[in-house]
Amino acid sequence: MLTRLEVSGFKNLLDLNVEFGPFTCIAGENGTGKSNVFDAIQFLSLLTDHSMIEAAQAVRGTHGALHGDARDLFWNGYSDGEHRMEFAAEMIVPSEVEDDFGRLAEPTATFLRYDLHLGYQPPQGGERSGRLTLLREDLNQIRSSDAASHLRFSPARAFRSSVVRGRRSAPYISTSLETGDPVILVHADGGRKGKPRPAPGRRAAKTLLSSINLNDDPTILAARREMQSWRRLALEPSALRTSDNYRDPSEMQPDGLHLPRSLDRIARERFPDDPARVYSRVAGRLSDLSGLHVKTLHVEADDTRELLTIKLHEIDGMVLPARSLSEGTLRFLALCVLLEDPQAHGLLCMEEPENGIHPANLSAMVELVRDLAVDPSVPVDEDNPFRQVLINTHSPGVVQLVDATDLLIADTASIPQGTGKAARGLRLRPLAGTWRASGAEKGYGTKADILAYLTSPPGARLTLAESAS
C-alpha cells in the first residue's frame, strides 16, 4: 500500500506531497496534470523491473503517446542547466515474499520509506541520446511507534498492528558520496553482520532495488514486490471480449486480457467443490447495473478448441457471450471479477472509471470501485485483501457519490522554484474537516472549490426542478 507520495521535478509535479488511504479519488479539470500522478507511480513501478531509460520510455509522454527522450519526464526538461527528479514513497509491504527461485522470506520491517533522486546526463562521445543518472537511493524503516501519525486514515489500532511491524534503526539502502559521485550501499538484513555492499551510482543503468531478487535481502525484496504490484488499469473492450486458451496466464492483465481464465481460476481455487458460488457472486454484483437482467453466468470450457469463454444467462433465458456486451458492462464485469480475486493486491490506478457507464449506473460503479479497496476497520483476510484503489475523474456524478474523506481536489498553483521564479504545478487539496486536512501543507479546499461539481451548469436546459413543474 502506497501511503504517501512526494514528487518534485517530474512533469508538472513540482512540489507534490500527498497522503493516500485505501481509496482515493482525484477530481479536477482536464489539463491540470491529474494523470501525472499515475505516471509517477507507474514510473516507480517500472523501475523495479527495467533500466531507467526503458522505464522512462514506457511512461506516457507529454501528448499521451510513448516517447524516447528522457527529458520529457523532467519539468522544463529541454531548458539549459541541471535537471533533477526526486521521489519519495512511503509504503506498507507484504509480510511474506517469494524470491525468483520460489523461496519464501519475511522482511524485518513492513512499513518503509523509499527515496530516489534521478538526474539527466546529455549525450557524450558517440551517444545520440542522453540518459538518466542515479543520484540517490535510500530505503529506511518507518518505526511502528510512528505508524499512527503516518497512517491517519485508519483509527483502528488492530489494523495497524496487523500490517505494520519491525524494529530497526539502520537503513536497508543508503547513499554516500565518494569524490563527488554517489555510491549506493546495501546493508545486511535480519541482524546479519558484515560491511555494506557498495555499488557505484553514477554509471548505473538500473536502480539497486531492481537488482534484488533473492531472499538474502528480504526487506528490500518486499519493497520491490510491493512496487511491482502498482498497476495502471486501462481496460480495453477488445481485450475483455477475447476468449482464453487453457494454457493462457490465469491473472487478468491491466488491459483486461485473460478475464475468462482469471475467473475460471478464482472459482476453482476459492470453492473447489462448488465453483458456481463465485459465478453467483459475480452475477449478483453485475445485476446492480440497471438495464441488465442477469440470472447467472459461467465460464464455458470448449475442450475441442481448448477455449474458455464467459457467458451470461439472462432472466428471460437468453445466453450472451462476453463479446456481445457493451463496453461499460465489460469493464464493470472485469472489476467484479477483480473483487473476487484474493490474489489481486497492491495499488490499482484507474482513469475515469465512469467512462461508458450510464448515469443511472454511476452509483453502482463508484460503490464497486470503493469496495475493491481494503476495509481498514476489519482484519485483512481472503475476503478483505490488502488492496488499494486510486482513481481520477472530472465527472460531477462521481464527485457527488464519493465520500468527502476520499476526495482530493486537483488544480494548478504557482510554485516557487530555486531560481527565484515561480512555475505552475499540480496541487492536490483535501476537503476541510477530513483526515488529510489537518496535515495539509498546501492548504485545504472547501465546497466552494468544487461548486461546479455540485450544481447544474450555467445554461442547463433540463433540470429536476423544471421537470417536476
From TrEMBL:
Molecular function terms, GO-annotated: ATP binding; ATP hydrolysis activity
GO process terms (BP): DNA synthesis involved in DNA repair; double-strand break repair; SOS response
UniProt keyword list: DNA damage, SOS response
Residue span(s) of domain Rad50/SbcC-type AAA: 4-43
Domain (ATPase AAA-type core) ranges: 268-399
Pfam family, one: AAA_23
Xref: InterPro entries: ATPase_AAA_core, P-loop_NTPase, Rad50/SbcC_AAA
PANTHER family documented for this protein: ATP-DEPENDENT ENDONUCLEASE, OLD FAMILY-RELATED, DNA REPLICATION AND REPAIR PROTEIN RECF
Protein name in the entry: Chromosome segregation protein SMC
